[in-house]
Every structure is written in C-alpha cells, then in structure tokens.
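Appendix B. Chain record.
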Amino acid sequence: MTIRFSKYQGAGNDFILIDNRDGALKNIQKDAVASLCNRRFGIGADGLMLLSSRQEFDFEMDYFNADGNLGSMCGNGGRCIVAFAKHLGIIDRETNFLAVDGPHYAKIASEGNWIELQMIDVESIENDGDAFVLNTGSPHYVQQVSALQEMDVFNAGSEIRNNETYKMDGINVNFVEPKTDYLFVRTFERGVEDETYACGTGVTAAAMAMAKKQQQIGKIETAIEVLGGKLQVNFNYDGQKFTNVFLCGPAVKVFEGEVGL
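Structure tokens predicted for this chain:
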C-alpha cells in the first residue's frame, strides 16, 4: 500500500501528516507508525498525525507519538495540522477542529505559516517539591533551572519521567530558565523518549508555571525560546485559572512524498 504524506515542522518539532479523509488508515498499526517516524529507517519525525473527517468540525486530528502509541494533545502538531489543512484547501484563515482533548480554534496569518492555536483552559497547578505539575492537553512537569544551555536534559528528564511517581503513565519534563524578556525552555518528551527541539504543550505549561510563581495577574504574553526557534504563549490569569490560552508560532511545510506502508 502506497500513501502520500507531507512533512511539517513547528520550531523544529517535526511531524508526518497524512490526509485520511477517506478513512483508509483508520486502523493504522503501532509498528507502522513507529517505522515511519524512525529517523534512520523511515521518514523521521517526533510524531504522526492523521487528518480525518468529522461532522460539525472542519477536521479531526489523530496524533501518534514516535513510538507508535496514540498520544495526548500536541500543541506544535496542532499548529502544523492547521497549516496542512489550509494547504489542502479544507480551511482558509480560521478553523475549528477536534483533537483528543476536545475542540480547538485556530487562526492563520495571511502568509499561511504562522498559526495561533487556542489551547484548553487550565484550572489547577500542583507542586512536586519546587517543581510544578499541570495538564495543558498533555501532562507536564516544569522545573526552573539555571545554566540550561549546558544542562544534560536527556538524562535529567529521563530520570524524572521514569521515577516512581511518573513511570506508569509518563510525563513530559520541562526545564525553564527565565531571561530578561523571554523564557528559555528545553523539554524531554514521553513517547519520543528524548529531548525534542520544541514542545507546544510544554512551553504553554512553562509559561503558566512561571506566571504562577511570579504572581503575575491579567493578560499575559510570554515570549519563548526553544532549541528550534521562537514561540509565544498568551493567556489570561486571574490567580486561579488560565483562560483564553493561545500557542503561537511557525508551521512550515518541509517536503511531501509517497511511502510504502
């Protein structure tokens, strides 16, 4: 079976996207997804997404981690699938689509490569020692550190993700270093089991955690720098709940092709 695919990246977070409106890949196997995402023997990606038809929405997003398992919400993936839908002619400048964590709204810059994606509201942040734990569509652990550029994120993140508290379900581990006018964030992602160049739900979690720690209230716009580029997270925070949350950043088509499955 030969399928067409497109490869997209959002701040270095890269994905395989497949138009599945005909339902041909509804039951795609875990091993097939992992093989396609493999960087030496496949196309190579942090994850794979199927764009499917869904009544009352422009489309539905099904996200798979690089290990082949169905994933939770992926923010940069969500922005990339919006760009993909625009390039397919399904949408124009705005969209409402369905993901695993519910409906999402997004708007697209006229150039088509800058996406502002509305994320879920967040009502609570827990503490784990001096770190923060919250769910922004995916579960995240956020720890403030210094000298992040030199940090061994793979080993530090893997240790937290696999400790007794989080080993069963896994958690994404984010290290954040506040700079003068932005946050520098690096993330170890479950499912990929490695550091990625960016994580959309992760930078959203980091911005929220720092807003809580610094007791910021009101409309907050946070510039973010990750290994793969720059993102921005905007939200309203009343001291308890985060609402009107938007993850903003680039979504760029890298190439397209055909692959045997």
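Further analysis of this model is presented in Appendix C.
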